[in-house]
Amino acid sequence: MSDPLRTGPDTVEPPPGVSRRTLMMATAAAGVSTLAPDMLAPGQAAARVPSADEARFLAVSRAVTGHQDLNPDIATRLFAAMVRTFPGYGARIEALSHVVGAGGTPEEILARAEEANQRQTMLGLVAAWFTGSVQDRTNAPMVAYHDALMYRPTRDALPVPTYCFAAPAWWTEAPPPLGVPVASPVPVPAPAPPPVGIQSPPPPQSKILPTKPPAKEH
Amino acid sequence: MAHPSFSGSGDVTADVVIVGSGVVGAVIAHQLAAAGHSVVMLEAGLRLKRSDIVENWRNMSFHNRVHSDFQGLYPQAPLAPAPLYFPANDYVGLSGPDGSAFQQGYLRTVGGTTWHWAASCWRHLPADFRMKTNYGVGRDWAISYDDLEPYYCRAEEAMGVSGPHDPDLQSPRERSRPYPRDMIPFGYGDRRVAELVNPHGFRLVPIPQGRSIQPFEDRPSCCGNNNCQPICPIGAMYNGIQHVVKAEDAGAVVLDQAVAYRIDTDEKNRVTAIHWYDAERKSHKATGRTFVLACNGIETPRLLLLAANERNPTGIANSSDQVGRNMMDHSGVHATFLANEPLWFGRGPAQSSCIVGPRDGGFRSSYSANKMILNNISRVGPATQQALELGLVGQALEDEIRRRAACGVDLSVSLEPLPDPDNRLTLSRTRRDPLGLACPDIHYDVGEYVRKGAVAAAEQIKQVAGLLGGTELRVTTSFNANNHIMGGAIMGSDPKDSVVDGDCRAHDHANLWLPGGGAMPSASVVNTTLSMVALGIKAADSMQADFQGGRA
Amino acid sequence: MIGKGRAAWGRYVLGPALGVMSMTGVALAQDAGGDAALVARGRYLATAADCAACHTTPHGGRPFAGGYGIASPLGSIYAANITPSKVAGIGAYTEAQFGRAVREGIRGDGARLYPAMPYTSYARLTDADIHALYVYFMQEVRPVDERPPATHLPFPFNLRFSMMVWNALYLDNTRFAPDPAKSAEVNRGAYLAIGLGHCDTCHTPRNVMMAEIGGKELGGASLGAWIAPNITPDPVSGIGNWSSDDLFRYLKTGDVPGKAQAAGPMAEAIEHSFQYLTDDDLKAIVAYVRQVPALRDAADSRPRESFGMASGREAALRGVSGTLDNGEKIFSGDCAACHQPGGQGSRDSYYPQLFHNTATGASTPDNLIAAIVEGVDRTVGGQHVFMPGFSHGSYVDELSDQDVADVGNYVLTHFGNPAVKISAADVASIRHGGPKPLLARVGGYIVPALAGAVVVLLALVGLVVARRRRG
């Protein structure tokens, strides 16, 4: 996802099927990240009228993420950051907007984007909205933390770190149902059989794979 | 209330001069100031506001956050650099087979590195104090667990530690007083994993922690915002700054941006003064009766070496040539995998439970013990990275983030290096800080003891992962730092092969104490802070005894 | 350290609860059976009255042994030992002496109590309640043979006999009499709320003589650092828009999401007393409050709980460094962790929302400032609600007067009443206990100028009020 040349357009139609879980979470978490429009202070950062490029960027972003409620202030600032980071970014968004025009789900748009050689642009744009940063690189410009889309799929269960979730010791309560298949959509090795005990010979296990530098802890 | 006295030129005189304002220095400062002594603390770094640190963290790039850039959000004093890794500033020069395992994150700032710890408050085991006697490896401490036990209690009480009242969940069980607060209650993930792994001998226990779910004094309750590292946004986690403020209220004075660099000694080799540079590079002098260096396991030996003088040509407190040697940390590995059921780590404080079954045993005569922290840090960041890597969009992307965040497990495995004189901090001949003072160089090799321990740990990791139906198991193949710096001013009963005695008093200087991680002669596998504070309080008691006995 | 002085204020406001039982006929009636029932009833009365708040030293003092110093501008007034110790307490009191002390402020030895002891309220207590209390104190409270420190106020305030004159002016030594025109519930509420000083002591404004202003009943008053707001049924200035359930919940828990949270002296009143009252008694108070004359303050344009909305500023400020104003920076760094970036509070309302909140919508910012400076501390129903203060010694951050003003103004602008502004001087004033009543400000200077006895009386009243205002 560190490919700097990802961008994507979007369809303005909402995805045809909103899952029950999504609805449930949206209801349960109303007001945490997504404010009902009438609760929002009137356009504070977006006091000015967005340019055509900015408006296109927001429309494309809505389509590729599948979220109609993307914040216009964040969109304006993300677009500016993307343009600063990736030369010619405006043109790529324009190209992607043609792919988005036909509508459909993000998955459908991605399929068309691939044909139009816009796959990386679309994935990069999705990644930027999900991570709140223009790319996954050291000190890359960022525009969203609490509002980064990556926190939405778990907002019924996990806090956005730094923000208190509920009364102290809330975490002792049962977490919400997972609501999605526990199995991975990509093939992975089968789990090992349970071992007999700590001193027994270890059961067969997936081989140890190299990975990224570890997180530090104290 | 006694206060240090300042001259017109900015020199200062106090009963007690402490270099370093982290948790150890601050707890000592508070105790001595409360006992009526004048105390001055010299802190190389800046005094920061919590709210600025919180905002700096939220304003960091995703990449920095997901890769734990816990240093970059803390502004550094222009004249007192500390390690940075995003990108690396090479303040500490690393070499040796495992140099990269010694990339420590420590802060030079008022309050010290406990600004970004996770508040684990472990005790060493009684056996950890007798490694040579029990297992024929490493060193024995100059004191026993029983000697330190009352100070462990006092440290826990000072820091408001929550730990299990149930003896079966304690590690170690030997304690004379209960924890000030009962354990932070487990979340679902801890409960479920305990259910699955404990029947197999792994012994998952609660981590004793410097936070509480009811207010402790005026410290607010932990609300489980899951951001202990690199900053607790609400002050619910113990930080050294809390004792800095208490020390100030008792009359102590903290000078920030005061970089100590020279130490004067008299004909009896007592310390008479410590010199520092202020933010304008002007030199000043702190004179006193009792001196403490509590600058952490890297800066304390560095200062001792920098301050070599005519009577102590190889460095202060270094007649044994052990200053800067025996550098240790809980060189560790991480294991990540996906369980075959949702465990939902990331609910509650960042650390909660830990597998301590392999903490001790006869095997320690041949290889390292370990502990495995079941990290409770939200997996949303890594899950997002992984889900994006798969090229997913739309509902599939969100489902995959949810699945990986719910089922993801990260084990942080700590190992136990032995004190090795060749693991050594020296002064760089090429790199200097902005004041022209030599930067530290460290040569580090974890040693066969740890390497063999890592092999054993890897087998245990496979078993744990197997018990949780793990897939996508990955174990890191090089060791990582855990920021538990030990050894550079090692404790021992023989002045010929150690730097300090059982009170952390320098063998060479009757009025100089070097408390903290540097004094610890065995690493154990547990986070060092509680032991450091216990040693600090023990040192403070010996300072007070000197004052009372007319020896100060 | 953060001001955590106990609001002695809340205490004698609660004295009225003493009378509750006899009014409500709760199943603790005297004839229910012997001394055990009587003692239990007395214990309930003493708990409801929170005698311990003043008479038990905080943090481990022995029950009712006294010694807690109630700070006043003139010096500490030490609460008496009211255990049945014959040498140090009230063990030698007859029931008649006990009753005179509680209802008339006359000690067993004939000396006058300072009105820090709220005998003017307790004067309404029925004989039956006095009896139950007496039996409880004599039979169940353990005697402690230790004398608390003596109270030494400077001349002329040390002349306890002057209280006789004050009492002649202000002590209405008559028992409560129901108004036959009102329902039994309202009468009961009146007994609790006004007859026994449960609400009016704080919520009714006072004139320069420190007497409650006629016709302004429950119209709101400053207690120093905190404001006791208008709680008349006026829909704009008072609680006219609150449902009876809202009011009941507030008294029972101190927390009505979307309206108000109790802090300062009100939190203590709820913590120590209201939460233990029977539901019927709380409902009676609500019924009474809802029918007092509505009072409108011309300064109020909208109900104080109606201001504000969630903020969208997070979307505009994240990743932008160096350009935020100080108030916004502090809000995001120190406040948003709990109250959330949009100010909505946590999903369970444990951390309350900042808009539609009386602390941010009031016409005066005192309670907002006091909450920031002193924090909030309320234990109700076993749940400890704790907001750390941001004064010296704060475990979060120490904020300067200007910092508090800046973040307070940010909160008022984005979540509360934008017409209200806070200056650093306002914060300094609240930090030091809030505006002082005239009598406390002029203090001893006024003495030579006026006739001695009157001055003493006035000053004593001022002293009591100032003490309350310390909250």
Automatic annotation (TrEMBL), chain A:
Region described as Disordered: 181-218
InterPro entries in the cross-refs: FAD-SLDH_ssu, TAT_signal
Bilayer-crossing regions: none
Pro residues: compositionally biased ranges: 181-205
Pfam short name (any one): FAD-SLDH
Protein name: Membrane bound FAD containing D-sorbitol dehydrogenase
Organism the protein comes from: Gluconacetobacter johannae
UniProtKB/TrEMBL annotation, chain B:
Region (Disordered): 162-181
Cofactor: FAD
A molecular-function term among this protein's GO annotations: oxidoreductase activity, acting on CH-OH group of donors
InterPro entries: FAD-dep_OxRdtase (IPR006076), FAD/NAD-bd_sf (IPR036188), GMC_OxRdtase_N (IPR000172), GMC_OxRtase_C (IPR007867), P2Ox-like (IPR051473)
One Pfam family, short name: GMC_oxred_N
Domain Glucose-methanol-choline oxidoreductase N-terminal, residue spans: 244-330
Domain Glucose-methanol-choline oxidoreductase C-terminal: 419-536
Keywords, ordered alphabetically: FAD, Flavoprotein, Oxidoreductase
Stored PANTHER family: PYRANOSE 2-OXIDASE (PTHR42784)
Protein's recorded name: GMC family oxidoreductase
UniProtKB/TrEMBL annotation, chain C:
InterPro entries reported for this sequence: Cyt_c-like_dom, Cyt_c-like_dom_sf, Cytochrome_c-type_DH, Membr-bd_ADH_cyt_c
Cellular localization per UniProt: Cell membrane
GO molecular function: electron transfer activity; heme binding; iron ion binding; oxidoreductase activity, acting on CH-OH group of donors
Record-annotated Cytochrome c domain positions: 37-141, 184-293, 322-415
Gene3D superfamilies from the UniProt entry: Cytochrome c-like domain
Annotated cofactor note: Binds 3 heme c groups covalently per subunit.
Name of the protein in its database record: Cytochrome c
Any coiled-coil regions, as ranges: none
